Amino acid sequence: MAAEQQQSEARREQGQAGAGNEQRQRSRREDNVIFVGKKPTMSYVLAVITQISGGAKEIHLKARGRSISRAVDVAEVVRRRFVTDMKHTVMIDTEEVTDEKGNKLNVSTIDVKMFKQ
Amino acid sequence: MAAEQQQSEARREQGQAGAGNEQRQRSRREDNVIFVGKKPTMSYVLAVITQISGGAKEIHLKARGRSISRAVDVAEVVRRRFVTDMKHTVMIDTEEVTDEKGNKLNVSTIDVKMFKQ
Question: What is the ipTM of this complex?
Answer without folding.
Answer: 0.71
